């Protein structure tokens, strides 16, 4: 194990940073960050992923850069929450259900199983930390950033599912990261875009926001991510939790007894970067008690943040003991999660001894455990189908379901095309019309954008006139259903009795005329679309229960 005394100040500070880069191969940005600024962690995004094989090689190459530079092994992370938040959506990584779908099943055993599957797969491609599970209690229907990323609005349920996910990931050697502490669920502003406040009294926070995190600490979670949210009941100054010593050290460390890694949410988010600047925020986060500073995108911000913390130590603003304590936690984590130092992922060279656990292609060699899991892969799809059928929720049905097999069906399907801070287009092309067509004839489908224009609505109204059964799928990743979708449902409701399927946000019902039937799926992943088609045709009985109230 490395001794802190062997590391320079610059190396110590660099180990406290986790940074992203923009290539599918080790580019100039990440080379510079590892070699010149000694960063100890890397975060992957969709932009880094071409395939699972490519990502496995990238993990090996990054670790090799660190080894050759004389640095500690890297901490490699990803936001693979499940459902609609999956940075890796390629074949070879299972698209497990998202949190609200799991919450709708009412069965934390499903959550445990999904985390075990995903944890094994992430570990096999060199990823040691998953920035999940989300433990925010989503009790604000206008929340634009959490929504279905939450298990629901009941704190006890969120805690139970969250603890199950933590156990699942960490049993497979992948660190779970509970987020966003102390809670981002009861907000109506996206902290990517602006400042957010949760104004409740401490007694209310204890019953709702803090309860899942207390259970996570009790469950032995390795890491907790901070929220860029102001909590006046804990921190009287208008300071977001990420930068508050009262929150990170006073509450999380001293009162709740958490001694794992505290990682910030990305400091480039506007709730932090606009009022403070990334460099100053990095210094304040360390002062507050954060161990790992996340700066996801911009090289200039990453470099300035590292340099600002180094300078703060040199001038005495940050005590060396603060840096050393954070580094002790990071080194302890790397010792436990990365194994012995010499067993780091490295590419094969003629003069290099092959590391234990890798074959000549840099891929993981199957151990007995891997072989046993491989034999169970045939059952994973059936497990996902089972979870999907237990999550799909029929909120209302005025005799429109199941579909009449003698009548034609017209499906309106919104396609996710544009990327936002909380949404990314998927590489799969499954749609409800495609799935229904495999079960029965007489299915027509019209695809629209998630922000349909009035012209699109007029086209649909003309095209649907001869339809016997109409299914309108709605989709939003924000707090409000887009106006174009609201307008479309309104116009169709004036003439027809509709089956509305909320493909993501169950709260869509609050912004449309009450339909004849209303179904919630919480996501549009392939397993859910398959199960939905079976539910609509009556071949499968939906068992999901709303994990939130539609009020």
Question: Quick gist of this model?
Answer:
The chain is an alpha/beta fold and 551 residues long.
Question: How would you describe what is shown here?
Answer:
- The protein has 551 residues and is of the alpha/beta class.
- Helix content is 38%, strand content 13%.
- The chain contains 19 helices and 18 strands.
- The strands form four sheets. Strands 11-9-7-6-3-2-1-12 form an eight-stranded parallel beta sheet. It has a six-stranded mixed beta sheet with strand order 13-18-17-16-14-15.
- Strand 1, helix 2 and strand 2 form a beta-alpha-beta unit.
- Helix 5 runs parallel beside helix 6, helix 6 runs parallel beside helix 8 and helix 15 packs across helix 19.
Per DSSP E runs of 2 or more residues, the count of β-strands stands at: 18
Largest sheet: 8 strands, parallel
Helix content: 25-40%
Output mean pLDDT: 89
Percent strand equals 5-15%
Stretches where pLDDT is under 50 for at least 5 consecutive residues are: 339-367
How is the topology of this model organized?
Blueprint: H1 9-14, E1 17-19, H2 28-35, E2 41-44, H3 52-68, E3 75-78, E4 80-82, E5 85-86, H4 99-105, H5 108-124, E6 129-130, H6 155-171, E7 175-181, E8 196-197, H7 202-207, H8 211-218, E9 223-226, E10 229-230, H9 245-255, E11 261-263, H10 270-276, H11 278-288, E12 293-295, H12 299-314, H13 320-338, H14 368-375, H15 377-391, E13 393-397, E14 409-415, H16 432-437, E15 443-449, H17 454-463, E16 469-474, H18 483-493, E17 498-502, E18 517-520, H19 526-536
Parallel strand pairs: 1-2, 1-12, 2-3, 3-6, 6-7, 7-9, 8-10, 9-11, 14-15, 14-16, 16-17, 17-18
Antiparallel strand pairs: 4-5, 13-18
Helix pairs in contact: 4-15, 5-6, 6-8, 10-11, 11-12, 15-19, 17-18
